[in-house]
Amino acid sequence: MAFKRSRLWSESKRWYSLGIPLGGYLAAVVGVLLWGGFSTALELTNTESFCISCHEMRDTVYQEYRQSPHFNTASGVGATCPDCHVPKALLPKLVAKVKASADVYHTLMGTIDTPEKFNARRSLMAERVWDIMKTTDSRECRSCHSQERMDLTLQDRQAAKKHKAERMASRGETCIDCHKGIAHKLPD
């Protein structure tokens, strides 16, 4: 008995045989569009205007920040909310965005919708940010401030002593250990 070739495995000469390559191209285009949309949304939520779009931020910590050295600088170079609160690398940025969703939740639930409620939770929110900064060795501070480029001779004696890399390393210190309240009011 001769082996008969199945119709399933025979090569088709019909136009619909192009469906598989076209489906692959279509999947690639859809993937690029989805990634582009995700990336755009990520960047739009990574702006100061987005951060202060909630009155809780605009009316409290943003006003404090406007009085800080990070906003008012002689050189005109300043840091914005994302510079200090959002990592540059993708994976840490995504983790930060997920953690920040707690603020969105509390905004929607009305937990921080007045200055009084915000201030009642200020200590908890500040401690959370400080813990992250401590854990990451003040990564976001270091994205602008380089210890290697600091001219310790231009600092007062006490600051120069505290900024020595060897001293900080031996004590397990990072920027946030001394610079809490540099951009925002300290909790009561």
Mean residue pLDDT: 88
- Cα radius of gyration in angstroms: 26 Å
Structural class: mainly alpha
Could you estimate the helical fraction of the residues in percent? 55-70%
User: What's the structural domain tally?
Assistant: 1
List keywords for this structure.
188 residues, mainly alpha, Multiheme cytochrome fold, elongated
Tell me about this structure.
With 188 residues, the chain is an all-alpha fold. It has one domain (20-178): Multiheme cytochrome fold. Helices cover 57% and strands 0% of the residues. The protein has ten helices and no strands. It has helices spanning 19-44, 48-51, 55-65, 81-85, 90-109, 115-135, 139-142, 157-162, 165-171, 175-178. The longest helix is centred in the N-terminal third of the chain and has 26 residues, at 19-44. The protein is elongated, with a radius of gyration of 26 Å. The relative contact order is 0.09. The model has no long low-confidence stretch (mean pLDDT 88).
Produce the secondary structure layout.
Blueprint: H1 19-44, H2 48-51, H3 55-65, H4 81-85, H5 90-109, H6 115-135, H7 139-142, H8 157-162, H9 165-171, H10 175-178
Q: What would you say about this model in short?
A:
Helix content is 57%, strand content 0%.
